[in-house]
Amino acid sequence: MKAVSIVGYKKSGKTTLTRKLADALEARGKTVTIAKFTHSGLTKPDTDTGQFIKQGRTVIGLSEDECAIHWGNKKLLPDVLPLAQADYLLVEGGKTLSWLPRVILLRKPEEQETLDRGLAIASFGDLKAANLPNYTDANLDELLDRIEKKSFMLPALDCGACGEETCEVIAQKIVADKATIKACKSINNATMTITVNGSPVGLNPFVENIIRGSIEGMLGSLKGYAPGSDVEIKISK
Fold it and tell me: pLDDT, tens digit, for every residue of 87-103?
């Protein structure tokens, strides 16, 4: 899954742009997941299902055409992403997220330093950001092309396997074309990889050693296995 966040302060047009990008990506045959950060709480519909919702309680709503899960406690975005299956993740908001690139929307020039953080691949709107390509509704397709080319998602582990202290440093280098996603060793490991629904799962070195050691230990008692062999395990639903 590739990802980009749409970042700006209140009333900058984030929701409108996110919706337009989602519609345009789907028109290109892509599937889209949208994550929205909000400070005003999540809307709880006036329905029978909505009456079950309260803090601390998990509620699952099921119908013939859709399904919804409401957790009554805080979750981090990386924790719930395994539930999403799509080509692209669009994140509305999330100014603190440092493991994916962003499109920034400015209301005034001095906002750029705070919003950019070396993670911006473009700006959008009438107010152009310095040293970034700027797009408007008139050339939205060009912004879409740039997102398809420049979007990515790191696992947000800050594991240090790449030699940097945080994922943000690698993300900044990728945005600046000084590195590629292959710099992330937790999802580009030459000795062990795990994918779920086609998407790589990030593994820090400690977890990798535990999983690898456990699997090799179990395989050691099976005929046909020899230490150092290439092993492929596939679990299908």
Answer: 999 999 999 999 999 99
Q: Are strands 102-105 and 120-124 parallel, antiparallel or unpaired?
A: parallel
Which helix (H) or strand (E) segment holds residue 17: the answer is helix 14-27
**Whole-angstrom distance, CA of residue 225 vs CA of residue 230:** 9
Neighbours of 141 (CB within 10 A): 11
> How is residue 44 written in tokens?
């709880």
Q: What is the distance between the alpha carbons of residues 55 and 19, in angstroms, rounded to a whole number?
A: 29
Q: Which residue has the higher pLDDT, 202 or 36?
A: 36
Q: Name the β-bridge partners of 159.
A: none
If phi > 0 it is left, if psi is from -120 to 50 it is alpha, else beta; for residue 206 that is alpha
Instruction: Tell me the whole-structure pTM to 2 decimals.
Output: 0.83
Residue keyed to tokens 């390509």? 133
Number of H helices, E strands in the chain: 7, 10
